[in-house]
UniProtKB/TrEMBL annotation, chain A:
This is Arginine ABC transporter ATP-binding protein. Keywords: Amino-acid transport, ATP-binding, Cell membrane, Membrane, Nucleotide-binding, Transport. It holds the Pfam family ABC_tran. SUPFAM superfamilies: P-loop containing nucleoside triphosphate hydrolases. InterPro entries: AAA+_ATPase, ABC_ATPase_HisP-typ, ABC_transporter-like_ATP-bd, ABC_transporter-like_CS, MetN_ABC_transporter-like, P-loop_NTPase.
From TrEMBL, chain B:
Residues 15-203 form the ABC transmembrane type-1 domain. Gene3D superfamilies: MetI-like (1.10.3720.10). PROSITE patterns: ABC_TM1. It is a multi-pass membrane protein. Keywords: Amino-acid transport, Cell membrane, Membrane, Transmembrane, Transmembrane helix, Transport. The keyword Hydrolase does not apply. It is found in: Cell membrane. Coiled coil: none annotated. The keyword Transmembrane helix applies. This is Amino acid ABC transporter permease. It holds the Pfam family BPD_transp_1. Belongs to the binding-protein-dependent transport system permease family. HisMQ subfamily.
Amino acid sequence: MAGDALIELRGVNKHYGALHVLKDIDLTVGRGEVVVVIGPSGSGKSTLCRAINRLETVESGTITLDGRPLPEEGRALARLRAEVGMVFQSFNLFAHKTVLANVMLAPMKVHKAKKDEAARRARELLDRVGLASQADKYPAQLSGGQQQRVAIARALAMDPKAMLFDEPTSALDPEMINEVLEVMRQLARDGMTMVVVTHEMGFARSAAHRVVFMADGCIVEDRTPEDFFTAPRSERAKDFLSKILKH
Amino acid sequence: MNVLLDNLSLYGQGLLGTVELTVYSSLLALVLGFLMAAFRVAPVGSLRAIGTVWVNVLRNTPLTLLFFAVVLGLPRFGLVLPFTLFAVLALGCYTSAFICEAVRSGINTVPTGQGEAARSLGMSFPQTLGDIVLPQAFRSVIPPIGSTLIALAKNSAIAGAFSVVELLGVYKPLSERGYSIIWTFVWIAVGYLLVTLTISALFHVLEKRYGVAR
């Protein structure tokens, strides 16, 4: 997809000890583009996702967001993170706060939003993910799928320019996966820029503009979903697809 | 029984001295302890270094030595304060090292994902710590902080050796007046129990109130 780049990685490298998890990664995500990152576990796809908002530091290379390089630490980094929503595999809702408070907190703390304004917006977002009736419950009282939808609403409350999804459905019971994917599909239709690390091939086929296949810390293929799923070029991708598409 | 009734005001003064030392030193220790715990988990390396040095020096040297350093050392630098204030400084700083480690262990019980989620939303380090991590760490640090403050109450007896009026020091004038040393100490022990059991009860209430797992 043409258009201007929102997220840009150039020559990014990272090691965990002796393990080279990201090897010279180049990746550009355009505004409004949905990029799905797939690959075997340990291929570095989660690390890649987390590096984009610097939850993982990188050793070399540059990461720019909307033309600005990622700051090192401190307030500038916090400001930049506020512009990129993140959804985690394990939801990470604030356990000591109600669903509504979870969604309201960051706008009030970071954007200094007024309490009633933040609450109004939070209820609107909870309604959008179909959870308006659960606003006063605590996260532990919700199912995994509901918690993940709250987490998406919480990230959206900051009006992010892009959303990162780090295996958002991997910790869910099969029956709850769809309710989360449906929210994500809607988000994609609304034109949100998204980087999604997932094992959901159906979602990759139906919602992604591009599929990035990673193996052993490298981007092996970066193509449209049709091309990738019907005619993978690399042996690595063929092998991967044959294993996961069998069942 | 006579020893208590005859010298009620002496015992009262001693008890009051111990309570004062305990309360003021506890407040100082809590403030410094939380601050140092924040330093020890801060993203800034120099703050972490300050926190580590603070804890390792204070936790690993005898309290009596610290008392000597404060009472005899600080006046050398022109800082002359009432003995009670010196004692509060010594006790508070010493205990803050233990509070710091209790708080830090509590911080470690909060899943890292909680902090990551807060940071990913653009919250600063103080916001992440104050609004997300510490409230969840709080319930697991209540019992160890209670124990630490009880130790503080008992440690305050050392101040008696440095001309501060406190409970243990009551035995000196009483033994000079010829009272039975056994009963003198029994009532002193009762006084300490009063202080420490009050702390226990307070923390029991706090634990009941905030210790509920969600």
